[in-house]
Each structure stands twice: as structure tokens, then as C-alpha cells.
Design a protein that fits this description.
This protein is mainly alpha-helical. It is built from 15 helices and no strands.
């Protein structure tokens, strides 16, 4: 009797499985999964392939570059390229300076853009929509058009103070909400705070909290994922920025300035080889930072409402 029930149960499960996957709906579901997998694999390949190619090239010797048979796997594996590039980049000096400076700028942008986003998201005042539209229009302005005015402003700061080749230009821009892509960060914070329940602010108001206390004690702790997201994006942009850095801080020991000074000698192949190695060494720290905070990054992007 037990065997008969088991057999009937297996037949029933098989028929249900066949009805699920061999019906028109099941075949369409399988087809869509295959198409989605192909699209994702293609996108991942397009994004990862150039970085992997540069990483492989950084371990190639000079002979491997001249050998047309060597494409992906080096015949003469070497670490000479990395050692020479690390020496030219002054890695022990430039890496901690760049890391701390990028983290400082990112932290200031999180605080300032969080305040601005909270104001736009939770307070209604005359002209708020116009001001927010101007913030969004900042994203449409090419940064190249701002270089000369900003350079002159920092070169003759308040009459004659020269801030060029110091760390103050980016700090001042971050503190005043004029840093790199601050309009995007304000928009992301605004969307996050708008989606929070009003009961949080009402409870804080009953407890006697002012607007600033409510922001720092209630709203900001509840937007940790967005803070990490904005910090990661700001950190990455500041770390890899060469447009403003090489004009405002050309004399500083930041990696963006040191990369342009990497010299591969007279051989064109060695110049390409060293440039690829330097690019890999500069991107790796950003990848590690992203891997640490990727969970918060994904949550922050989802809550901000950014798609595409």
C-alpha cells in the first residue's frame, strides 16, 4: 500500500513538473531566463574584460609584449612592472595621502548633501522647486566649463590668497555643496528622506527635538545605506579624478598626479605596459572599498529610486 502511494505521488509530481515547464507559459519562462542570462553575461564581459586584460598585461615581460603568440597567458611571468610602477608612484607616500584625502572629501559631501537633501525632501518653502531644479541643472553643466572660473577663484581667493596646489579647493567645494557630482548626491538623499514615514519626525518633535536634532538623531541613522552609497560614489570619483586634481593640486602627492608622471622609457611598448599597470594599481583599492560596502550600496540605490 505504501509503495502504491509513493508511486502515485511520484507520478503526480512528474505531471505537475511537466505541466509547469513544458507548457507554453513554462517554455516562455525558460526562454526569458536564458535571454536574461545571456544579456547579463554579455554586460559582465564588456565591463570586466578590459580590466582583466590590463591586469594580465601588468604581469607580462617585455618579451611577451613583442611575441604575437602571447595574448592572455604570459610566458615569462614577472613582477618587475609592478615594482617599477610602485616606485614611480611613490606608493608608500601617495596611497595613504590619497586615501585619507578622498575619505575626507567623501565624508564632507555626505554630511552637506544629506542636509540639503533633507531640506528639499521634508520641508516645503517658497522657491524650493526652483532651487531643486537648479541643483539638478548642475548635473548638465560640463565640468570643463567650470575649470577656469574655479581656478581663478582659488588662485585669488578673497583678494590675493593662493589656494592652488593645496588641499583646500576640494574641501571648500565639498563644504559649500559645490563638489564633484553633488547634485546627484542631493537628489539621492532627497528621495531617501521623502520615502521615510512622517511619524519619525512627529515622534521626535513630541520629544522636543529641533529640525537639526531630528536630522542627526533620527533621519540620518535611518539612512545608513544611502550614506554608504554616497560615500562610495564620492570616494571613487575623488580617487580617480584627474580633471580638477591636476589643475588645482598639481604639486601634491595624490595618485591622480603621480600617474601622469609614470615613465616607461623610450620604448612605446613599455610606456603602454607601465600605464596599464598603474591603472590596475589605482583601481584595485576602489574595488576593495566597494566589496566591503556593496550590500549598503545596493540598498541605497534601490531606495533612491535611480534606475537605468
Amino acid at each position: 500500500m505504501t509503495k502504491t502511494k509513493t508511486k502515485i505521488k511520484k507520478e503526480f509530481n512528474f505531471k505537475r513538473w511537466a505541466r509547469k515547464w513544458f507548457s507554453l507559459h513554462g517554455m516562455m519562462s525558460i526562454g526569458w531566463k536564458i535571454v536574461r542570462a545571456i544579456i547579463l553575461i554579455g554586460c559582465c564581459y564588456t565591463i570586466i574584460y578590459p580590466f582583466l586584460l590590463k591586469m594580465i598585461d601588468s604581469f607580462k615581460s617585455f618579451e611577451d609584449y613583442l611575441d604575437p603568440a602571447v595574448q592572455y597567458i604570459p610566458k615569462y611571468f614577472t613582477l618587475t612592472n609592478i615594482k617599477n610602477v610602485l616606485t614611480q608612484l611613490e606608493w608608500q607616500k601617495s596611497f595613504p595621502i590619497t586615501f585619507l584625502y578622498s575619505a575626507l572629501i567623501a565624508g564632507l559631501q555626505v554630511l552637506v548633501c544629506g542636509l540639503a537633501g533633507y531640506g528639499f525632501g521634508r520641508f516645503k518653502f517658497r522657491g524650493s522647486k526652483v532651487l531643486f531644479a537648479l541643483v539638478m541643472m548642475e548635473l548638465l553643466v560640463p565640468p570643463q566649463t567650470l575649470i577656469i572660473p574655479l581656478f581663478l577663484k582659488f588662485r585669488f581667493f578673497y583678494g590675493g590668497l593662493n589656494l592652488i596646489n593645496t588641499g583646500w579647493p576640494f574641501i571648500i567645494m565639498a563644504m559649500t555643496g559645490l563638489g564633484i557630482r553633488n547634485g546627484l548626491y542631493i537628489f539621492m538623499f532627497r528621495q531617501t528622506f521623502r520615502n521615510m514615514p512622517k511619524e519619525l519626525e512627529e515622534a521626535a518633535l513630541i520629544d522636543g527635538c529641533s529640525a537639526f536634532k531630528t536630522f542627526f538623531r533620527v533621519m540620518l541613522p535611518n539612512s545608513i545605506s544611502m550614506m554608504v552609497t554616497v560615500f562610495l560614489i564620492s570616494f571613487a570619483w575623488q580617487w580617480t579624478d584627474t580633471n580638477f586634481t591636476q589643475r588645482f593640486q598639481r604639486g601634491t602627492s595624490l595618485l591622480a598626479n603621480m600617474i601622469s608622471a609614470v615613465d616607461g622609457g623610450e620604448e612605446e611598448v613599455m610606456v603602454l605596459q607601465y600605464n596599464n599597470t598603474a591603472a590596475v594599481l589605482c583601481v584595485l583599492p576602489i574595488m576593495l572599498v566597494y566589496l566591503i560596502g556593496q550590500r549598503f550600496f545596493i540598498q541605497g540605490v534601490e531606495r533612491s529610486g535611480i534606475t537605468g
